[in-house]
Specification:
Length: 132
């Protein structure tokens, strides 16, 4: 896990240095904060347009699919933050398998919830249908 994060950090630093080199080469008076302003602003806008388009297409299949995607993304971020926190504080081991096990836990609990929800809806329809 540490190796993966180190690799990501190296790539991000290379991209950062490349952007600074290009901007400096163009002679533009832009500081580091302005680079972050423009880069994150553009990245956020591009991501928003992609997500908005994709979610509008997926919404045809039901809002629960969007809820799953949002929850799945949030759980991944929370899992990564927990692992990074463990690395920084030295409490526990920072391992990719911890994230994997956490995701499997999410899938299992979600599957049980879906089964019970479908069972409840089925029983409710039978009870409601039988009273007519």
């Amino acid at each position: 896990m540490t190796g993966i994060l180190n690799g990501i950090v190296i790539v991000m630093n290379l991209i950062h240095d490349l952007i600074i080199t290009i901007i400096s080469g163009l002679g533009l008076p832009v500081n580091d904060k302005m680079i972050h302003f423009y880069f994150i602003g553009f990245l956020g806008l591009a991501l928003y347009i992609f997500v908005d388009f994709t979610f509008k297409k997926l919404a045809k299949y039901g809002i629960s699919l969007l809820s799953f995607i949002y929850t799945f993304s949030t759980i991944i971020v929370i899992s990564l933050v927990i692992e990074i926190q463990q690395k920084i504080t030295g409490e526990g081991n920072m391992e990719f398998s911890d994230i994997t096990y956490g995701m499997w836990g999410f899938f299992l609990f979600l599957a049980v919830f879906i089964v019970f929800s479908l069972l409840f809806k089925f029983i409710f329809k039978k009870v409601k249908g039988g009273k007519k």
